[in-house]
Structure formats: structure tokens, C-alpha cells
Amino acid sequence: MLMRTDPFRELDRLTQQLMGPGTWSKPSAMAMDAYREGDEYVVVFDLPGVSADAIDIDVERNMLTVKAERRPVAKAEGVKLELSERPLGVFSRQIVLADSLDTEHIQADYDAGVLTLRIPIAERAKPRKISVGVGSGRKEISG
Q1: CA-CA to 100 of 20 to 30 Å: which in 11, 63, 88, 92?
Q2: Residue 62's pLDDT is what?
Q3: So what's the pLDDT on residue 49?
Q4: Can you give the pLDDT at residue 131?
Q5: What mean pLDDT do residues 17-35 have?
Q6: What is the SS3 string spanning the chain?
Q7: What is the pLDDT of residues 28-49, one digit of tens each?
Q8: Is the pLDDT of residue 75 over 60?
């Protein structure tokens, strides 16, 4: 039988135990991806095991804040925990949004442990054509 070992897994587990779970005043970081898709920015957060009602999304000016809490699962009486590697507590991420984004129309979807935010680009920031008018009333100044 082969056993695969990860020397850093034990270090991660010990660090998590020493630092404890995240709290609302000192949350842990959450993993995210961000990319542009057409006329909107998409930000995706991994939040496995978090219920939708434990997610809090706020926008103040151009600061987007996402907080989520993974709560312990209620266990039946007489159950003895043998191993616990899944982090519990509060996770948070803050992102400074560009002024070119429309923070009034952010859409949030949560499915299968993945939170997806879609932030449209503001109309004023989209490229547009400016027509050039031809002046017909030229005046000559004589002295």
C-alpha cells in the first residue's frame, strides 16, 4: 500500500488550530477569481459548505465586501470526531472596484458552493463613437 504524504498539510492544520477560526472582527481570507466577460466583470468565490443565508455582500462607494460564515454541522449524541480539517468560522474578502463599474446593478448567484458576482461596466465607461460635424458657417475676420 502506498501512502501519499504532504509535509505542509500538518503545518496548515497546526496553524489553523493555533490561530483559530475566523471571527467577524478577524476573518480568514477566501479564494477568488476575477475576469472580464463581455460588458461585465465576474468575480467568483469558493465557499463550500456555506449556506446562502450565511453570506453577506455589501458595497459602499467603490468597496465591495463579501463575508461568509461556515458553521459547524450539528452532530448526533455519542458521535466522536476523529478528524477535522475543514475550516470553520468567518471568511471575508474586500475588493476595490473601479469607478467604471456600475455598482447599482451587481447580480449575485450562489450555486454548489460557488458565489458568482456579475458587475456590469457603467455606460459612461463603454467606448462610443463621436461624430465630427462639418462647420458650414465660416466667418472671415478682416481688420
Answers
A1: 92
A2: 87
A3: 86
A4: 84
A5: 69
A6: CCCCCCHHHHHHHHHHHHHCCECCCCCEECCEEEEEECCEEEEEEECCCCCHHHEEEEEECCEEEEEEEECCCCCCCCCCCCCCCCCCEEEEEEEECCCCECHHHCEEEEECCEEEEEEEECHHHCCCCCCCCCCCCCCCCCC
A7: 778 899 999 999 999 999 998 8
A8: yes
* Cα dihedral 108, 44, 104, 69 sign: positive
CA separation for the pair 68, 64 (Å, rounded)? 13
Whole-model pTM over 0.70:
no
CA distances from 33 to 12, 16, 65 (A): 22, 23, 15
Q: Which of 97, 95, 117 is nearest to 108 (CA)?
A: 117
Grid cell, residue 66, equals 463579501
Q: Alpha-carbon distance 75 to 78, whole Å? A: 9
* Polymer length of the chain: 143
Q: How far apart are the first and last CA of the chain?
A: 103
